[in-house]
Amino acid sequence: MNRDHSHSGERRRRGLRDAVCVILLALAATAPAAGVEPTWRPVDPDNLVFLELQEGRVAIELNPGFAPQTVAQFRRLAQEHFYDGLPFYRVIDGFVAQGGDGSDLGELSDVPLIEAEFERAWTDDLPFTPVQKPDPFAPETGFIDGFATGLDRAEEKAWLLHCPGVVAMARNDSPDSSRTDFYVVIGQAPRYLDRNMNVFGRVIVGMDVVQRIQRGPADDNGIIRDDTAASRIRSLTLASDVPKEERLSAFVMDTSSKGFADLLDSRRHRTQRFFRHPPPPVLDACQVPAPGRLTR
Amino acid sequence: MNRDHSHSGERRRRGLRDAVCVILLALAATAPAAGVEPTWRPVDPDNLVFLELQEGRVAIELNPGFAPQTVAQFRRLAQEHFYDGLPFYRVIDGFVAQGGDGSDLGELSDVPLIEAEFERAWTDDLPFTPVQKPDPFAPETGFIDGFATGLDRAEEKAWLLHCPGVVAMARNDSPDSSRTDFYVVIGQAPRYLDRNMNVFGRVIVGMDVVQRIQRGPADDNGIIRDDTAASRIRSLTLASDVPKEERLSAFVMDTSSKGFADLLDSRRHRTQRFFRHPPPPVLDACQVPAPGRLTR
User: Fold this and answer.
1) What is the pLDDT of residues B249-277, one digit of tens each?
2) Using H for helix, E for strand and C for coil, what is the string for A56-90?
3) How far is CA B222 from CA A19, A80, A210, B89, in A?
4) With a cut of 0.85, is the ipTM above it?
5) What is the rounded average pLDDT of the residues A202-231?
6) Closest residue of B to A7, CA-based?
């Protein structure tokens, strides 16, 4: 039924090999900057979580600097195997994938509530690499330890931005009502949630896996009422609980390195001939994530 | 190995049924506005494309108002079954999924080149529903016929924004070098590409399917060199070429309706008690897409 593309397939492979193609250099999300190469930092195994889904493996870095109580509770729940077997029961394409035991939806639970950790005190010693000032939703944005961050120097507050890949606790009306169920942002950054949720981590490897999580019906707020239709958490494990000889190591680009600052600059000022209409010198902090990688 | 969640599963279902849960109303991407309901408009079958992948069905609306030559060539290629069987050969998670015959990568092709259609003339009779002014990348943003649009009244130009779901032609260094290969934006809007590409459509149904397209290696610009590993286009068909009795109809929310303007207002001014820190009254045009649906 389909055309025979074997010839064009052969030509394509040749083309792929030979072409020096400006668009790739100009547009690639992970192309190196014009300056020095960014360095990478190892992720502390106490802050590294492996989320195993039927769709594949996801690595999450926790951020106790911004959400210490949330991270402590999440670590404890991981160690109790609380999440193993639970579904992503509320998944809205372009918004969030939310998983857990449903306590966010009015379910009884004896797991303690977590108090609001929506922002933290700003201090000058935080390794802040600036991105944009002002940003539509914040006086300033930048990176701290790989996480896109909002900053209000007048209020002396910093907070984690709701970028794609961010992991946060769901809650109800009360700011102090998050507990167990968490979501991953899977679409255009819902920045209106900034400073309103306990953001406590981000996906550093495996967003392609997260994007395969089964969606729920848009006209029912993404709720998947049939448990058997939902994507399921096989296991959620803290790296430091894995025997050292079996453990994968994770690295993320060091956002306090000169190389990362250079990378941001090269994206803020796109001077390649490719750009017929040079973009304004602004950056969306959520569009330049710090990449991560896993190694044996 | 996993805990027995049958009890909590039962409880969860009960919770799902009974809970009146503010977070759902407050955060849902498609919740109705406080004002009148938005109306829907039918999509012209000449502008409706069914992209069938092994991963599922995707519906795309073409936009001849902004990119008449690109749409004309794409329609012709669809009618020639040009795309049937071709792979998505360059897929970068969080950025774009690009498919076609590889001519964008230096492949020989006898398909004519398309001249740049990066923007169109602004005229006051265009059905523009405002979103944000100014926006970081444009003097104004809004919606025209369901598409997120940038507007510069001084230059009398309007253009389609690079939001998630947007479909555009790949090109090389010359602005007039697009031809056959196209990409779908699958991550945080790469707005720096605005006014630099032939944007000619957007996905109105099936972004969850697009998100399942096989990714390529990040360290090789997402290029999938093994043809057998790539996601493949089973068929790409114009709705008007499908016999009427077999054809699905598509509808998109009418972005020129009072209801849609009310919906935007309700997202710009989030006054629910849920918001401990009320967000600033700004909107990211790419975060409020006009939904679409398919019916028999």
Assistant:
1) 999 999 999 999 999 999 999 999 999 99
2) EEEEEEECCCCCHHHHHHHHHHHHCCCCCCCEEEE
3) 15, 38, 18, 8
4) yes
5) 95
6) B101
Taking the C-alpha atoms of residue A42 and residue A63, their distance in angstroms, rounded to an integer, is 14
User: Out of A5, A81, A212, whose CB is closest to B86?
Assistant: A5
Most A CBs within 10 Å, among B1, B2, B40, B163, to test the A interface: B2
Smallest CA-to-CA distance from B99 within B223, B196, B190, B250 is with B223
Percent of chain B with pLDDT over 90: 83
Q: Residues with Cβ < 8 Å from B51, sequence gap 6 or more? A: B57, B58, B59, B60, B206, B233, B235, B236
Is residue B78 domain-resident? yes
Instruction: Tell me if B37 is assigned to some domain.
Output: no
Give the pTM: 0.91
Any domain includes A105: yes
What is the domain range of residue B111? 42-245
Residue for token pair 């709720």: A223
How much is the mean pLDDT over chain A?
89
Measured in angstroms, the CA of B121 and the nearest CA of chain A are apart by 16
What local confidence, expressed as pLDDT, does residue B189 receive? Answer: 98
- Residue B45: band (very low, low, confident or very high) from pLDDT cuts 50, 70, 90: very high
Which chain B residues touch A188 with a CB distance below 8 Å?
163-164, 188-189, 284, 286-287
Number of domains observed in the structure of chain A:
1
Is B104 within 8 Å of A171 when comparing Cβ atoms?
no
Q: Is residue B290 part of a domain?
A: no
C-alpha A69/C-alpha A16 separation (Å) is 50
The two most distant CA atoms of chain B are separated, in Å, by 65
Instruction: Please check whether residue B252 is in contact with residue B60, taking contact to mean a CB–CB distance below 8 angstroms.
Output: no
For A4, nearest residue in chain B (alpha carbons) = B85
CATH code, domain carrying B239: 2.40.100.10
Please report the pLDDT score of residue A17 as a whole number: 34
Mean pLDDT of the A52-75 span: 98
* Residue B25 confidence (pLDDT) above 80: no
